[in-house]
C-alpha cells in the first residue's frame, strides 16, 4: 500500500507520535515498568549514582518507567536470572565477573549465564593510599620493602574491583622480585569506612580507596592522624585524561595523572603496566527477547549521540563510555581473560 500525505494524516495522532519518536514506538515490545537492579545496597555510592543517570535517560528515550533498586550483588543476579520477560535488568561493574574469578560463593559466571549488555561509563577513581606519615611514599617504596622481606599490609574488600588492584600489586612484586609477592598481604575488610579505619588503627599500611571518597583526607595536614596520600590510581592514563581538568576537591587532573601509569608504574609483565578501568555495563536475562535488548542498546546509542548525558556523567566524575552490546561483550571478555590469567598465576 502506497502511503500518501492524506493517508498518513488519516492514521491519527498515534502514528504521528510513532513517526516523531521512533524509540517510543518500538518500545511497545518493552514492559511499561522496568526494574533496574544494581549490585550495591547503597543509595550514596557510585553504582547508584551512575545507574540513576542511565535509568532517567533511558526512561525518557523509551517512554517507559525505570526504577533503580539497590539490592546487592547476589539478589540483583538472582532477580535478573529469574525474569526473562525483560521487566528486570541489571547495571553493575566489573565486580560481576571478578567475584566469579575469585570464587566468591553464590556468584555465577555472568558470561555464561547472562547476556552482557552495553557499557555506559567508567569510574576512574579506584586508587590506593597510605598514611601521610608512612615510610612508603610511593609504590616503589612498597615494592622495595616487600623485596627486603617486610610485610606490606593492604586493606581491601575481597572479591571485586578492590581486590583486582591488590592482585595487580602482587603480580608486579612477583615480576620484579619473584617470591616477594608473598610479602604483599591482604587485610580483608568491608566498606570504604572499614578500610579507612584499618589504616587509622594501624592494621593496614596501604588501603584501597576511591578518589571520590578519599580525596578529602589527602588535603589534611600531615600531623592529622586521618591524613592520607595517594600512591596509585589504577585507571588507564587515557581514561583519567578525560576527567575534568579541575579534578576533584583540591587535586587537579594533572596531579592525579602523577599516580597513574606511566608516571607510577605497577608492571604487568616487565614491559607493560597493569591498569584497570572500573567499567559499568548492563546485564540481561539470557532468555530475554533479543529485540528488547536491542531496543535498549539502540536507545543508548541515540542518547550518547545527542551528547547531554556525557555532561551529567562528567560532572559526577564519571567518564562516558558507551560501547554497543556486541562490542561491549568482546571488550569485557578480553578484559576478563587478562585478569583471569594474572589471578591464575598467583594461586597457591
Relative strand content: 15-25%
Percentage of residues assigned to helices: 40-55%
Please give the CATH architecture of the largest domain: 3-Layer(aba) Sandwich
| Top CATH class of the largest domain | Alpha Beta
Would you count the extended β strands for me? Answer: 11
Kindly name the structural category: alpha/beta
- Within the largest sheet, what's the order of strands? 2-1-3-10-4-11
CATH topology of the largest domain: D-Maltodextrin-Binding Protein, domain 2
- Biggest sheet statistics: 6 strands, mixed
The whole-number mean of residue pLDDT values reads 91
Number of separate domains: 2
Give the overall form: globular
Give the topology.
Elements: H1 5-10, H2 13-20, H3 22-26, E1 33-38, H4 46-62, E2 65-70, H5 73-82, E3 88-93, H6 95-101, H7 110-113, E4 114-123, E5 126-131, H8 139-147, E6 152-156, H9 161-176, E7 184-188, H10 192-200, E8 206-210, H11 211-218, E9 228-233, H12 237-240, H13 253-257, E10 278-285, H14 290-306, H15 308-315, E11 319-323, H16 325-345
Parallel strand pairs: 1-2, 1-3, 6-7, 6-8
Antiparallel strand pairs: 3-10, 4-10, 4-11, 5-8, 5-9
Helix pairs in contact: 4-14, 9-16
Q: How would you portray this structure in words?
A:
- There is one protein chain.
- With 348 residues, this protein is α/β, with parallel strands linked by helices.
- It folds into 2 domains: 9-124 and 278-345, Bordetella uptake gene, domain 1 (D-Maltodextrin-Binding Protein, domain 2), CATH 3.40.190.150; 126-257, Periplasmic binding protein-like II (D-Maltodextrin-Binding Protein, domain 2, 3-Layer(aba) Sandwich), CATH 3.40.190.
- The chain has helices spanning 5-10, 13-20, 22-26, 46-62, 73-82, 95-101, 110-113, 139-147, 161-176, 192-200, 211-218, 237-240, 253-257, 290-306, 308-315, 325-345; strands at residues 33-38, 65-70, 88-93, 114-123, 126-131, 152-156, 184-188, 206-210, 228-233, 278-285, 319-323.
- Helix 9 (161-176) crosses helix 16.
- 43% of the residues are buried.
Amino acid at each position: 500500500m502506497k502511503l500518501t500525505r492524506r493517508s498518513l494524516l488519516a492514521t491519527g495522532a498515534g502514528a504521528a507520535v510513532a513517526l516523531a519518536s521512533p524509540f517510543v514506538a518500538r518500545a511497545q515490545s518493552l514492559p511499561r515498568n522496568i526494574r533496574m537492579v544494581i549490585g550495591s545496597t547503597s543509595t550514596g555510592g557510585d553504582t547508584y549514582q551512575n545507574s540513576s543517570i542511565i535509568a532517567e535517560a533511558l526512561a525518557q528515550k523509551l517512554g517507559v518507567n525505570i526504577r533503580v533498586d539497590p539490592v546487592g550483588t547476589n539478589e540483583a543476579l538472582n532477580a535478573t536470572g529469574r525474569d526473562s520477560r525483560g521487566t528486570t535488568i541489571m547495571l553493575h561493574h566489573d565486580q560481576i565477573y571478578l567475584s566469579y574469578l575469585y570464587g566468591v560463593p553464590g556468584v555465577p559466571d555472568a558470561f555464561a549465564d547472562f547476556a552482557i549488555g552495553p557499557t555506559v561509563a567508567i569510574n576512574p577513581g579506584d586508587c590506593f593510599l597510605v598514611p601521610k606519615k608512612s615510610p612508603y611514599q610511593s609504590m616503589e617504596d612498597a615494592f622495595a620493602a616487600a623485596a627486603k622481606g617486610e610485610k606490606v599490609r593492604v586493606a581491601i574488600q575481597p572479591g571485586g574491583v578492590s581486590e583486582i588492584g591488590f592482585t595487580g600489586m602482587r603480580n608486579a612484586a612477583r615480576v620484579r622480585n619473584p617470591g616477594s609477592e608473598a610479602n604483599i598481604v591482604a587485610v580483608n575488610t568491608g566498606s570504604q569506612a572499614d578500610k579507612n579505619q584499618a589504616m587509622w588503627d594501624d592494621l593496614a599500611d596501604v588501603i584501597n580507596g576511591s578518589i571520590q571518597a578519599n580525596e578529602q583526607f589527602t588535603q589534611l595536614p600531615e600531623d592529622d592522624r586521618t591524613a592520607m596520600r595517594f600512591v596509585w590510581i589504577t585507571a588507564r592514563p587515557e581514561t583519567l585524561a578525560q576527567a575534568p581538568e579541575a579534578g576533584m576537591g583540591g587535586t587537579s587532573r594533572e596531579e592525579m595523572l602523577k599516580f597513574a601509569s606511566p608516571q607510577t608504574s605497577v608492571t604487568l609483565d616487565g614491559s607493560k603496566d597493569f591498569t584497570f578501568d572500573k567499567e559499568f555495563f548492563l546485564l540481561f536475562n539470557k532468555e530475554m527477547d533479543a529485540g528488547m535488548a536491542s531496543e535498549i542498546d539502540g536507545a543508548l546509542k541515540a542518547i550518547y549521540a545527542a551528547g547531554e548525558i556525557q555532561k551529567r556523567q562528567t560532572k559526577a566524575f564519571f567518564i562516558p563510555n558507551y560501547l554497543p552490546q556486541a562490542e561491549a561483550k568482546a571488550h569485557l571478555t578480553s578484559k576478563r581473560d587478562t585478569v583471569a590469567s594474572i589471578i591464575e598465576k598467583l594461586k597457591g
